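Structure (tokenized):
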């Protein structure tokens, strides 16, 4: 009887405060995508939001989410203003005042740096730089433990760090990889910043005040009611996928044709200019000839700028800066140039050449914005008719050419100052027109390439869906093979271009199965020898089908050899060892692992531990030994992540 009373007392002591509580107060970082962030409509969304909804359903305990800046969340837990803090790393300092649940999610963290900086591989390499980091981030202590000489610039949230890096406040920052990837994609900075290998990995936990065992027990009890597969599904739903546009999509012919077209176009304009000059009076022939010779030099410089049109990685602002640099070099008579952005009736300078400091802060108001829609030559006497609040801004400018950037709200002013003996001529206006056309082609080309890449993506997905409809056992298989193939390639540190080819190869590696009878593919029993011979034609058929699509020819040979064996007993060509392309060997082991762990009517799916033994058995015969070791390491990591701590 005494034992029963003791157990009852302990239960009431531990859980009574929350049996009748209206809600559990959970404080979380409002800017930790994709776990928590504010969307365009102002709503709190993300993995954690859906996790806590699921937790409410399983436990019956209401939860109040309190999104704040991370430093505020830290203070609220120390001041006991909240019951739980969400998605937090476990550190020695935090263990002094917090108790932690079992881990929820694995998180890696890396160094991100401007791509122009070279030889940055570790924390020791960033000692000379100012390093951006979020206030109260666990990465501060972790990085200082490895390099105590680091100098930090602190930001309130991750979004501000990335914006600061874009604006040049910092060239290096440290951040958890998933949020970093989210913001680099959001702000179109993937090609401007590079990342190192992760310098640490940790786990995200839930935590409560030290010694608050009642809440800790409630949290762990709730977590035990949520399966690891459900957590993994939440992560997959919100994880931002880094998409790269491959260089192997067969655009070389299009680029060449576009360049030839532009050269012909500019040559025709140049020829027209020559004809106009022929009609000039004999007395001005010498002066005109000298001007034409200068124009020839300018045109050849314009041809050099054409190459930037085909560079899809070139960001818009960088292209405009290059145009402005080129304008200054091509128009030797101009004294200054200004790149403005137009907002309503206001012109705000973005880049200024040829003026003293202070111009960047000036805002010029336009009386009639329509004058900015086409090329215009304006003399000083007409400035008050077009602009307000001139003050002394235009005091030294005698005349200017307005050069609009079509399809974008940008304008360039080309200026001649007081004391300059030269004036703008018709040739200068023609050159300005050519610059305007270059800018238009730049934006048209970017739009064209984006549409083409979207079309190719749809081709791949359509082929994959057709195969999954045809062969019911293929559903999801190609995507899983692609996932493991990429993980192996990343362990090998293969170039990004190779990884992207491997990804597309994995998605379509079985497309040749549409040439095999559905009766054989969907047969519930094991195949006969004759039926298996029919199935063995699919790698060759896959290659034949992909070779007919120009954009996919480079991956066709990878797909052909994905059933070759290390010992030379595979098909279709009986290649062995390094005769088999590396990408095909990677596909082979990823394909084999997914087949081992997938359920079929005639066999059960192997567990992860059983799959390790099977790969060890096949290493050196069916599978590449080195790749087998890497695959086993990946599987062990997966086992570790799924094992409750």
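Design, position by position:
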């Amino acid at each position: 009887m005494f034992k029963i009373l003791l157990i009852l007392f302990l239960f009431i002591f531990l859980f009574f405060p929350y049996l009748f509580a209206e809600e559990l107060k959970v404080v979380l970082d409002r800017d930790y995508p994709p776990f928590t962030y504010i969307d365009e409509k102002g709503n709190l969304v993300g993995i954690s939001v859906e996790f806590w909804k699921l937790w409410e359903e399983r436990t019956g305990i209401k939860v109040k989410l309190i999104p704040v800046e991370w430093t505020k969340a830290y203070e609220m837990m120390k001041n006991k203003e909240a019951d739980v803090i969400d998605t937090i790393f476990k550190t020695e300092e935090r263990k002094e005042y917090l108790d932690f649940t079992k881990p929820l999610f694995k998180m890696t963290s890396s160094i991100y740096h401007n791509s122009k900086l070279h030889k940055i591989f570790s924390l020791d390499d960033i000692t000379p730089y100012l390093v951006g980091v979020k206030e109260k981030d666990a990465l501060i202590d972790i990085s200082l433990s490895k390099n105590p000489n680091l100098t930090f610039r602190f930001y309130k949230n991750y979004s501000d760090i990335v914006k600061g890096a874009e604006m040049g406040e910092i060239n290096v920052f440290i951040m958890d990889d998933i949020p970093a990837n989210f913001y680099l994609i959001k702000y179109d900075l993937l090609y401007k910043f590079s990342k190192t290998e992760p310098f640490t990995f940790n786990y995200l936990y839930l935590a409560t005040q030290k010694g608050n065992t009642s809440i800790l027990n409630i949290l762990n009890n709730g977590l035990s009611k949520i399966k690891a597969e459900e957590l993994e599904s939440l992560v997959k739903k919100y994880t931002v996928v880094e998409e790269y546009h491959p260089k192997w999509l067969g655009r070389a012919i299009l680029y060449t044709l576009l360049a030839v077209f532009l050269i012909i176009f500019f040559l025709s304009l140049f020829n027209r200019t020559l004809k106009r000059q022929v009609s000039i009076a004999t007395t001005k022939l010498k002066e005109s000839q000298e001007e034409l010779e200068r124009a020839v030099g300018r045109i050849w410089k314009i041809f050099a700028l054409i190459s930037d049109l085909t560079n899809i990685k070139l960001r818009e602002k960088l292209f405009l800066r290059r145009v402005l640099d080129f304008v200054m070099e091509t128009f030797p008579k101009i004294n200054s140039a200004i790149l403005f952005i137009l907002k309503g009736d206001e012109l705000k300078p973005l880049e200024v050449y040829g003026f003293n400091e202070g111009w960047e802060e000036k805002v010029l108001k336009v009386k009639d914005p329509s004058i900015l829609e086409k090329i215009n030559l304006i003399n000083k006497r007409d400035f008050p008719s077009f602009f307000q609040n001139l003050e002394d801004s235009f005091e030294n400018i005698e005349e200017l050419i307005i050069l609009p950037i079509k399809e974008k709200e940008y304008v360039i002013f080309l200026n001649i100052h007081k004391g300059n003996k030269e004036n703008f001529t018709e040739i200068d206006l023609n050159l300005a027109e050519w610059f305007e056309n270059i800018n238009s082609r730049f934006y048209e080309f970017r739009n064209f390439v984006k549409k083409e890449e979207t079309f190719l993506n749809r081709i791949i997905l359509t082929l994959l869906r057709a195969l999954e409809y045809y062969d019911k056992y293929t559903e999801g298989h190609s995507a899983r093979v692609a996932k493991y193939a990429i993980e192996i390639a990343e362990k090998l540190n293969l170039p990004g271009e190779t990884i992207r080819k491997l990804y597309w190869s994995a998605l379509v590696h079985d497309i040749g199965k549409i040439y095999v009878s559905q009766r054989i593919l969907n047969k519930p029993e094991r195949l006969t020898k004759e039926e298996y011979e029919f199935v063995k034609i699919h790698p060759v058929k896959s290659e034949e089908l992909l070779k007919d699509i120009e954009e996919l020819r480079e991956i066709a040979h990878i797909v052909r050899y994905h059933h070759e064996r290390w010992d030379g007993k595979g098909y279709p060509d009986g290649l062995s060892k390094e005769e088999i392309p590396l990408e095909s060997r990677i596909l082979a082991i990823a394909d084999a692992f997914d087949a081992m762990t997938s359920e079929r009517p005639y066999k059960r799916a192997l567990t992860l531990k059983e799959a390790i033994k099977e790969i060890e058995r096949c290493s050196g015969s069916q599978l590449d030994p080195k790749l087998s070791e890497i695959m086993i390491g990946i599987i062990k990591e997966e086992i570790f992540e799924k094992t409750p701590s």
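Reviewer-requested clarification: The CA atoms of residues 101 and 220 lie 6 Å apart. The radius of gyration is 32 Å.
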